[in-house]
Design goal:
It is built from eleven helices and ten strands. The protein is an alpha+beta fold and 278 residues long. It folds into two domains: 154 residues, Sandwich (Jelly Rolls), CATH 2.60.120; 103 residues, Homeodomain-like (Arc Repressor Mutant, subunit A). The chain has a five-stranded mixed β-sheet with strand order 1-3-8-5-6. Helix 3 runs antiparallel to helix 4, helix 5 crosses helix 8 and helix 6 crosses helix 7. The longest helix is centred in the middle third of the chain and has 22 residues. The two termini are 29 Å apart.
Length: 278
């Protein structure tokens, strides 16, 4: 399979913080106290991030889905997702960035784009303030306390998701592995191929995906491929037929029909619409 390069930058935590020579496993800060980096927008992260807006308005666009920024909304962005935002000057809140490897270790991964904090403001604020204090201390106990705090924060997020309109669970290791397989191994085609790659019986694999996402494994994989197709349409030099081939679709006309069914736009119409906005 051919390698391809996106026409979009992907940044690590140290690049966002403009500390190029440091290996930074996590960062905790206030939204208003974290300097805006000199980077290109939109872009992708090579890490997981969480942003809790305690004040402010605007819009957050993640993989071509637009979400409203509003008070007490918490956003989650995973590695590889293309995102951009426009927020008001009075925006306040907290920012958390977690290295890919550490996020997997701490199960700090989600399937939902945001949750609304309707009941745990004081608790969340205490957690973040404790994390901030430990991040500033940087003593022998800080790392242990920060990791415990991150784990608790994401467990609390799962509870809040159940109380809000978003009922998808935290992503388990198998779902995160599946997402990586879909995005990084485009030569896999059938559900049984993914199940075999993950060393799972096909029936077990189907049940796991259905339980975790609410849809069948086939539909979930197709949804992920359509998301990747959107990224390649806008941010790569490949044409529609090449993108179909890259993602394992042998028949470009089937890919075009599926894309239109999922997005209500043909690939060419989608490209025309969103390229104008860049």
């Amino acid at each position: 399979m051919r390698k391809f390069a996106y026409m979009i930058n992907e940044y690590s935590i140290n690049e966002i913080l403009e500390l190029p020579n440091k290996n930074i496993p996590y960062y905790i800060g206030t939204f208003e106290g974290t300097d805006d980096p000199d980077i290109e927008w939109p872009h992708r992260h090579a890490f997981y991030s969480l942003v809790w807006f305690t004040e402010g308005t605007g819009f957050y666009v993640v993989d071509f889905q637009e979400y409203e920024i509003k008070k007490d909304r918490i956003f989650f962005v995973s590695p590889k997702q293309v995102h951009n935002w426009d927020y008001s000057e009075n925006s306040r809140g907290y920012v958390l960035m977690i290295d890919n490897t550490l996020a997997t270790e701490l199960q700090a991964e989600t399937l939902y784009p945001y949750i609304d904090n309707t009941s745990e403001n004081n608790l969340l604020e205490n957690i973040f303030n404790n994390l901030l204090d430990e991040f500033k201390r940087q003593d022998n106990l800080s790392d242990r306390h920060i990791k415990s705090g991150i784990t608790y924060l994401y467990a609390l997020s799962e509870r809040l998701a159940g109380e809000s309109n978003n009922h998808q669970p935290l992503a388990n290791d198998n779902i995160q592995n599946l997402r990586r397989l879909v995005y990084e191994n485009h030569n896999l085609h059938k559900v049984e191929d993914y199940a075999r790659k993950m060393n799972l019986p096909e029936d077990t694999f189907n049940t796991l995906v259905k339980t975790s996402t609410g849809i069948s494994a086939k539909q979930y994989i197709l949804d992920l491929k359509i998301t990747e197709a959107k990224r390649q349409l806008i941010y790569s030099h490949f044409n529609i037929n090449e993108i179909a081939f890259n993602l394992g679709f042998e028949d470009p006309s089937y890919f075009t029909r599926l894309f239109k069914k999922k997005t209500s736009l043909s690939p060419s119409a989608f490209l025309k619409k969103y390229r104008k906005q860049l």
